[in-house]
Amino acid sequence: MTRRAEVVRETRETKISVKVDLDGAGQTRIATGIGFLDHMLDSLGRHGSLDLDVQASGDLHIDFHHTVEDVGIVLGQAVRQALGDFRGIRRFGLAVIPMDETLTRCAIDLSNRPYLVWRTAFPTPKVGDMDTELFKEFHHAFAMNAGACVHLETFYGANSHHIAESGFKALGRALREAVEIDPRAGGQAPSTKGSL
C-alpha cells in the first residue's frame, strides 16, 4: 500500500507544492522563503518520519501570514489524501517533548473531525523574522485540512524558539504514531462507526 500524496495549491497570494510519504524515513526538502518555518517543517518531517517536500512562494513583501497558513492548508490536505480511507491506522498519537527549559505535549486524533485546542503562549512577538502568532495559524490550518483533532499545550517554557520547535516536534511524533498501520486493526477503520 502506497501512502503518498502530492498537492499543489495556487492563489493570487501563494503557490504551494507539498509531497508527503507517511511511511518515509524523515527525509525533507523544504523551501518556503521563511527560514524559521523551513526549520520547523524540517523538524516535523524528521521527528515524524515523514518524507516531506515543501516548496512555497508567496507575498512575503506583505507579511508571512498567507504563506504560513497556506503551507498548513496544503500539508494538511496532503496528509489527508495520503491516509486514504483511514483504514488500519492507529488513529491516536501522543507525544511529550522536552526542549531545554520547555515542555510541550501534542495529542492527535485522526478522526476526520478537525479541531484545534491551542494552549501555547510566547514571551516574544517574533522568532527571527517570524511572528509567533503565526504558529497557531499554521497548526489550525493543518488540523482543519488533515481531518485531525489536535490538542497542543506548552506546560512551561521561556524561550520562544524552544516553545515553537517543541510544538512542531511534538506534532511530528504524535502524527507518526497516529498514522502507523496497526497490525491488530485487521485493515478496518479504527471507529465503532465502521468508518471515519
UniProtKB/TrEMBL annotation:
Gene3D superfamilies: Imidazole glycerol phosphate dehydratase, domain 1. InterPro entries: IGPD_sf, ImidazoleglycerolP_deHydtase, ImidazoleglycerP_deHydtase_CS, Ribosomal_Su5_D2-typ_SF. It catalyses: D-erythro-1-(imidazol-4-yl)glycerol 3-phosphate = 3-(imidazol-4-yl)-2-oxopropyl phosphate + H2O. One of its GO terms (biological process) is L-histidine biosynthetic process. Its EC number is 4.2.1.19. Pathway: Amino-acid biosynthesis; L-histidine biosynthesis; L-histidine from 5-phospho-alpha-D-ribose 1-diphosphate: step 6/9. Its main location: cytoplasm. Pfam families: IGPD. HAMAP family: HisB. This is Imidazoleglycerol-phosphate dehydratase. It comes from Phenylobacterium parvum. The lineage of its organism: Bacteria, Pseudomonadati, Pseudomonadota, Alphaproteobacteria, Caulobacterales. The gene is hisB.
